[in-house]
Each structure stands twice: as C-alpha cells, then as structure tokens.
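We modelled the chain as a single entity of 247 amino acids. Its sequence is:
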Amino acid sequence: MPIIEGKILLTTFAASIFLLAVIGYFVYTFTKQHKKIVAWQQARIKAEVEILETERKRIATDLHDDVGPLLSVIKVQMNQLPTTNDIEALLLNKSNKQIDEVIQKFRNISYNLLPNTLVRKGVVYATQEFIDKLDDTQLKINFSSDAIQLNTDVAINIFRIIQEIVHNTIKHARATQLNISIINLDLIIELKTQDDGIGFIFNEQSNLNKGLGLLSLENRVEVLKGKLTVETTVGKGVKYYISIPKE
C-alpha cells in the first residue's frame, strides 16, 4: 500500500510540475506576444505622427516660400496699372488690402503648421509666441516654464500638445483662464495645465470617438513614452498632467 501511495504522489507531483511548465510557457508566450503588439502599436503611432509633421512642414514651406511671394508679386504688378478715375483707385486700394489680408492669413497658417521659432529658439519661446499671437478670444493664458533644452522631435510634440490643449479650451471649455507650466525635473519633464471652464465627464468623452482631441493628446504622449492624466468633472474645469521621461 505505501508503495502505491508513493507512486500516486510521485505521479501527482510530476503532473503538477508538467502543468506548471505548460502554464509558464503560455504566460511567457503571451507576455512576449503582448510586448510585440505594444511595440508595433507604438511604432505605428510614431510613424503616423512623423508623417503628419512631415506634411505640415512641407505645406508650411510651400505657403511661406511660394504662395506668399507670388501674392506679393501680384500686388506689385497691380499697383503698376494706371487708374483713370477715383472708382478705379478705390477698387485698387481695396484689392491691395484684401491681398494683404490673404498674405497675413497664409503667414498665420504657415506659423501654426510649423513655427520657425520652435526650431530656432525652442519650445518655451515658441509657446509664448503662440500665446501672444492668439486673438479673438476672451481666454487669459498664464504660461511659465523652467529653462529647458530638448531635441527637435520632443519639442515639436510638446508644442503640439500645448496647442491642442489651448484650442480645446478655447473651443469647448468656456473658460476665462488657463494656466500652463513646464517643469524641468531630474528625470522627467512635467507639463501641467488647468482651466476654470465647465469641464466634462472624462469617460464619456474618452469613449465617444476620443472627443475633444483626447486621441491626439494620447498619441503624442505615447510617442514621447510619457504618461497622461486628466482630472475633470462637470463645472470644475480640466486639469492635464503629462510626465515625459528625458531618456
């Protein structure tokens, strides 16, 4: 009887070891496959963001280098035409003003697509310039930042995140004030924003086609391998906390 019991115990032990090995293999395989999927998703998002920025840069360059100068040439040629009466002079003057408005709009579009100051002077200067250029809005924006040096790709993504938050606040929040700060810590860069608007129910907007530009924010943060936290309730405004590792 003891011999039989020993065989049973030995068989049970062997079966348990085999079962654990099988489970371990499946866990290892699943974890490895999950890491591959995550890496693939991150690579896809990064590629999409890079393609978007490349297109923006191309369009901004075309507007700045081609369309703007062409309109200026047309304006010069128009002003060389003789005017025979006051009506023609008035019409020419009106056309000049309209061309100036179009040129300015193209400059604004080109700037929004890719500010030259972002590449030349960095994200802090570009953000302050972007805020200073905002018009036709009742939103007061308070911006503060530590001194910071970033490579161009990181600077562009942080700038786009700030742009998205500002535009969302102007369009949806009904806020009168927005505070933005960039904090330079030892291992991370911390971006914080807070408005005094109407807020929203985060889960509903997050599930509703990633409303309010949340998908764009999440993609940018993921490209930077950062973490995005949103705190909001109806009537209490919105707070964004974004931490971005330096390495």
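As a brief sanity check on the tokenised model: The chain has two domains: 2-113, 116-245. Strands lie at 140-145, 177-184, 188-195, 227-232, 238-245.
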